[in-house]
Structure formats: structure tokens, C-alpha cells
């Protein structure tokens, strides 16, 4: 279902919950005939954002024009712009450990008081 949900968002251009393609099923799940959009203004937890201009799935426009203006600024703790990472580099890139994983581990350690 995850891939289908992602495909729906790509096709519609909306960041919304899964569309059951049935007004009745959507009504059962969401209380409305259409799936609601995710409301990033309601985020109330620290956000450590890692993104890149070269990401072909979450591109610069998505981040700068949609996500960043929607997040409550008090919860955006870090905005880590990695200019040369493509989407798969976040997982398999040669610098992923140094640029992403090690900083995230430090964040977790600090948060846990380790």
C-alpha cells in the first residue's frame, strides 16, 4: 500500500493521506469523502531535516516552497541542506555515514543524555 500511496501523491501533486478511491471507505477512515492533506503546521516535535537540490523525489521546490514554510519554526531544529546528494545517496552514498548517520547518532545520544 505504501507504493500506491506514494504514486497517488505523485499523480495528484498533493501530500495527503491514502485515497481509498471510494467515498464510503474514505468516509469510514477519515470522516470525509476525500482524504485530508497532511497539515505540517501541526508538527509539534523537533525536526532535523536533511535534503538536497539533487534529490529527484523531494526536490528543492518541494522543500523550499512547501515543507519549510509549513513547518512551525520553533520545531525546525536543523535544516541540513546537502547540495549534491541524490535520493539514493541518503541511503547508499559514500558520504552518507559522515554527512547523515553520524550526526543523527549524535543527536540521539544527546537527546538520551548519553
Structure, described:
The protein has a two-stranded parallel ribbon. The model has no long low-confidence stretch (mean pLDDT 94). Helix 3 links the parallel strand 1 and strand 2 (76-81). The protein is globular, with a radius of gyration of 17 Å. The protein has two domains: 1-37, no CATH class; 39-114, no CATH class. Helices cover 45% and strands 10% of the residues. It starts with a helix and ends with a helix. The chain has helices at 2-12, 23-30, 60-70, 89-92, 96-112, and strands spanning 47-51, 76-81. The chain has 114 residues and is mainly alpha-helical.
Strands ordered across the widest β-sheet: 1-2
Helical residue percent?
A: 40-55%
- Low-pLDDT residue intervals, each spanning 5 or more residues: none
Measure the end-to-end span: 37 Å
Structural class: mainly alpha
Roughly how many Å is the radius of gyration? Answer: 17 Å
User: How many strands appear in the DSSP assignment?
Assistant: 2
- SSE succession: HHEHEHH
Strand content: 5-15%
Number of domains: 2
Protein name: Triacylglycerol lipase
InterPro entries: AB_hydrolase_fold
Keywords:
Triacylglycerol lipase, 114 residues, mainly alpha, 2 domains, globular, AB_hydrolase_fold
Strand and helix layout:
Elements: H1 2-12, H2 23-30, E1 47-51, H3 60-70, E2 76-81, H4 89-92, H5 96-112
Parallel strand pairs: 1-2
In short:
This protein is mainly alpha-helical.
